[in-house]
Amino acid sequence: MKTAAKGFGKSIMDPLHREGWWNRRILLMVCVVLELVTIHSPMVRGTLELQLDEEQPAGTIVGDISVGLPPGITASLYFISDHEGTGVGSDLDIDESTGIIKTAKVLDRELRDRYNFIAVTMTGVTVEVTINVNDINDHAPTFQRKRAMFKIPEQTAIGTGFPLEPAVDADKGPLTTQGYLIKDGNVGQAFTLETRRGSNEVLYLDLVVNAILDREKRSTYTLSLEAFDGGSPKRTDQMILDITVQDINDNAPIFNQSRYHAIISENLQPGSNILQVFATDVDEGDNGMVLYEINRRQSDPDRYFVIDSRTGIITLNKPLDFEMRRVHELVVQAQDNATQPEVTNAFVTIHVRDYNDNQPTMTIIFLSEDGSPRISEGAQPGQYVARISVTDPDYGEYANVNVSLEGGDGKFALTTKDSIIYLICVDKILDREERDSYELRVMATDSGTPPLRAESSFIIQVIDINDNPPLFDQPVYRQVIPEVVFPGSFVLQVTARDKDQGPNGDIDYCILQDHGSYSNWFSIDSITGIITTLSQLDYEKNPNPSITVVATDGGKPRLSSTAVVNVVLQDINDNEPVFERNFYNVSIKENTAPGTCILEVTATDADGGSFGSITYSLGSGITSVVPSQFTIGKETGQICTSTALDRDQGPASFDFTVTAVDGGGLSSVAYVKVDLADINDNRPAFYPVSYAVSLSTQSAPGTSVVRVTAYDPDSGENGRITYKTVPGGASPYFTLNKDTGVISLSRSVYGKANSVIPVVISAQDGGGLVALVSARVNISVVAGLVAPPVFEQTQYYFTVSEDVLRGTVVGIVQASSTSRDISYTVSSGDPGGYFTVDPDTGAIRTSLSLDHEAQSALELEVQARSGNPPAFGQTLVHITIADINDNPPVFLPSSSESLLLPEHTEMGTVVYRVQAEDGDSGVNGQLTFDLSSPSGSQRTFSIERSSGEIRLVGSLNYESAPRYDLQVIAKDGGVPQLSATFVLVVHIQAENDQGPVFDTLTYRVAIKEGTLINTRFLQVRALNRETSGSGYFSPLAYHLRPDGDAAGFGIAADSGWLFVKNSLDREVKDMYLLTVLASQGHGHLKKTGSATVRISVTDENDNFPRLTQERVFMAVRENLAAGTGFGHVTASDRDSGPNGRLSYRFLHPDRHFQINSHTGEISTRTTLDREQQSSYQLGMVVQDGGSPPRSATGTAFITVLDDNDNDPAFTHSQSGKIIIIQVTEGQSSGVLLGTLQSKDPDEGENGTVFYSLSGRRFICSGKIELPCKQLH
Hints:
Structural class: mainly beta
Number of domains: 10
CATH topology of the largest domain: Immunoglobulin-like
Radius of gyration: 67 Å
CATH class of the largest domain: Mainly Beta
Strand order of the largest sheet: 1-7-6-3
Shape: flat
Oligomer: single chain
Largest sheet: 4 strands, mixed
């Protein structure tokens, strides 16, 4: 054991070290002395035992060591001997000088309950000190689990105990766990608690059964247990104990009834359910699962019945026999599924009921001559048909048989005298034509329960007698045929029907001869009833011949009837329409309102009926295409305007053709010329509006100064212009020629040097309209000789491509002058504003997009200005707008066409000439034509490359090639080369002398787009020309050749009616060409004729207009004359005619701008001033001419460009006033005299102000761009 002089070290050695009094040698000597004293001093001992409660705060006084010294001994210093692990040094604080013992921290008895150490005085007296730590109740009992589950079988004996986990308390003695309580859940005091103290002082716990447990009454308990200690107050802890009462098999199954009864028929089928027994068992799991079985030792050893072990359903296992056994007794057991099952019995009584199992038998004998079931339709009521005998092998009531009769619609009855023999007889009059057979059913039924019956069904045939004459389907027939049919041609087929059978129903046909009815023109097939022509028909002799047809049957006696056939002869189409005149001339005023009818052409046709009906259409003229400005009434021939006609913006006359087509396809053409008479609908307009010229003071009177020019697109007197000066705009120095617009010097201007004389001139046409904007002429008077700027060339020639971007430099003009301040302007020649000139450099640039096709060249007058007053020089600039290949060829009038070509057409014949145009010029607009078709087509047809003539160069054969699709490609000469394709469909007309012939080779019909599917629109008709071997015509069958456009249409095979199969959309396709075929015969005898149907799809207003740009941006210069156009809006509409005719307007009327309702050109309504408003936003509406109309909207954004139309103005005073600046004499040079400020409302360079002084004694300093200038 190691002992340490703890007290000495702490009380003496540490202070010495701290004070620095001793050195290591002295320390070693003291330790040795102390050890010697301890060893050699005589042993004097004392004891001290102290008590202290745990959990006292640190510093609590425990006791005094001196109390333990022997009597008479004192000490002033203690040395404490401490063993390692005793806790004395860490838990106690011992004062070695006084011997007072204190706690160094809070003591915990549960960690350490005793402290022992020895205190030694300097004289060697020892005191053994013992400190006992007393327990306090600082711990509660604690269950290891707060909730536990426990299972106890039911029927456990009372007093049986089950150990539970005890609660643990760290305290000791009376303060540890002292007991347990059941606080809650102990229903019926089913449990008690017993405890026992273990050697480790733990109080153990047992759960003891205190009452009989029955799971069927209560299956679970939830006990709340509490443990408590012996403290005051007590400390406690709780635990929940979930007790499950486990089932034991203590209950037997119980049936819901002790005896069951059932009655079943002996014919019940095996597998049928009879009844269900039911038992319950209150146990759970296997103990409560009930299983059923039949006790075979006590019942049903032959297994007539079986039972489902789980459901208790008793089922018949094999057939029963009432005669062998009428009652069955079963013992059914119900047992549970426990290891030692409980069993219960029930009794089932099943009674078997007898049934009727023998049916009657019947014997039927028919009473006709041959013993078959038949009877004449002439049999009278009461006549016998059959005899029936019945028997039944059963006895008793089951042998009683009743016989009944069903069917026959009441025409037959059943009779008997002895209920053994029965007779069937006729009950009502029979009519074979009404019904030729009857189905009868005889039933024999016994009296059993259920009754059995036998039945027999048979059909009674009713034998015919000749009691009906033939009857025609209709009493009167009507047929329409052309008068030119060949003898033997089919007219129609009559049909008579005879209700009788056999020879009684066989029919022969004949024509009743009547000389006055032209019956000898026709013959009839006696078997088929087909009527054909016997000789040539004559419409003029009798257009409506009528014949009587007789139908006779083969009965005895023979019966007959008649019908009338009315034949309507149809005139052939052998006359073309004839116009009243071949040429029509009409004159109308321009701007005639759209829809105004100007002329009615009339054609007549000598044919009658549909062949005499005429329709009119417009065609191209001698040198023009079909005019879109006119429409013609299809039936009336009225020609009306479709748009407003402007003679000044378009042609002065129109020529076109009118085609009249009759119902058979024959046509004729008349020529129409429409001249537009001018009206005074245009005011004169000056261009240019502003003129600037220079004049020398030395000029003699009579000198021509300048010529102003106004334009008026009207003609004649309306376009003749006279000029005059406006009031206040004249000058006494000049005169104006009212006819030519030339301004001349009237007197000397010698005194007007260095001044500008303005002259304002108006223009008026012969109709009295005056120009809205007057021309302003500024005449600059120069002292002495005029020295105008001189251009390097008198004329300039530039070329620019039409596809250049805006702002592209076209060329540069240069002028020289003694004055260096030269500025350039375009004075005339460009009313459209396509070009601008840089005022400083003379560079000419494009300002708008160019289009060679709209304008191929311009001649501009460019003016150079210099000096003050200014002098002006001019030059001519010729600008050629070079064409690019930007327009592909366009075929006229459409990109496709079709024609019908007879099979015998001679080779070399020109069959078609294609027409195309190209908007480009030169080689870009030169067209060549090529065929691009299958090789067979190119061997049959050729095209002349320059003229577009298509020739037949091979033979035609309908059987090998009934159709050709020719593709013509038109190419221009540009780079890159542009092209277009034209499709010509050539249908071959077969030459078949014996085949059917249509009444016309080409049918023309117009139908509206959107026509409903299955709508009929045209009936074609063909005539037979060849008889069959029996001498009459076989019927015709119509069909469409399955090529080209046939997919969209159908034809009724028997009637020739064409109908619509697919939806029609004119904007997708506006013309269809069909080949309709009529066939007769079959196989190698089949002959076919053909005709062409040309279908024009007329327009409906089913498309909205579409603006090319819904947002369009435009620019216009300020100060342009009212009425100046500066931009267009364009729109398109896929519809045609009035439906596609567009008109433009602003969404809201505007006082600054107007829009041409026909062209979409936007022009100024008044003169614009950028300084007042620099931009505009206008809503636009484009509307078609449909009914109701459709429309679209867009927006125009207009920017006003600046003109240099404002003079700078000094801000110090009003314009023209003198600005006075004072300066003292003798002032030195360079002194600032003042600052001038000016403003110019123009923008850009037009608003930049330059300053200069006319005197030489002062200068203007600072940058010239600044609006503020300093004067020195």
